[in-house]
């Protein structure tokens, strides 16, 4: 896949369709491969990226997905980033960002900011009082981005085993929509 870059190239943010599943998987896999290469052994990282590359068709077809929103950011004719958000729990006016990834070729280009701005508007329209998200403690680039967007650490942590038997620590972030 060729990804075009450039500050003069406009970014289109739109709701994802089933036709975007493969491109979303590619963005997810490549972002994971590059961002987490120092956090996992190479054989496990390959397995994790392959799984992310192929998961989006089934995620988008699931019943649970109906309550969620998936936005993609395009530059030219390529999906270069996506954000997946939805309600935290039924009956609670709080939301969660489940995934926010940009292809490494789009890092530093402002695409993630544009995408997050659009997702934030939708969160406000959905009347979420607060938005939660979790990220790996070693994902420093992501943590810096979330903090620069106004998210703060809650102090809550959890261990997440991605399948290699070596749990990593995740930290929760939170931001009020008001």
TrEMBL record:
InterPro entries: Acyl_CoA_acyltransferase, Bact_Acetyltransf, GNAT_dom
CDD domains for this protein: NAT_SF (cd04301)
Pfam families: Acetyltransf_1
Database matches in Gene3D superfamilies: 3.40.630.30
Keywords of this entry: Acyltransferase, Transferase
EC number: 2.3.-.-
Segments forming domain N-acetyltransferase: 11-175
Domain of life per record: Bacteria
Example GO molecular function: acyltransferase activity
The protein, known as: GNAT family N-acetyltransferase
Organism this protein belongs to: Actinophytocola glycyrrhizae
């Amino acid at each position: 896949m060729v990804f075009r870059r450039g500050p003069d190239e406009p970014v289109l943010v739109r709701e994802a369709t089933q036709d975007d599943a493969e491109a979303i998987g590619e963005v997810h896999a490549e972002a994971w491969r590059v961002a987490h290469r120092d956090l996992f052994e190479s054989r496990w990282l390959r397995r994790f990226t392959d799984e992310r590359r192929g998961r989006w068709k089934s995620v988008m077809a699931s019943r649970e997905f109906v309550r969620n929103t998936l936005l993609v950011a395009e530059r030219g004719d390529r999906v270069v980033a996506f954000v997946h958000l939805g309600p935290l729990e039924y009956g609670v006016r709080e939301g969660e960002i489940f995934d926010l990834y940009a292809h490494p070729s789009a890092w530093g280009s402002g695409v993630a900011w544009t995408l997050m701005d659009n997702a934030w508007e939708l969160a406000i329209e959905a009347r979420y009082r607060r938005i939660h998200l979790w990220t790996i403690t070693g994902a420093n680039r992501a943590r810096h981005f979330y903090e620069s967007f106004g998210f703060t650490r809650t102090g809550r942590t959890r261990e997440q085993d991605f399948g290699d038997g070596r749990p990593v620590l995740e930290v929760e972030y939170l931001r009020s929509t008001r």
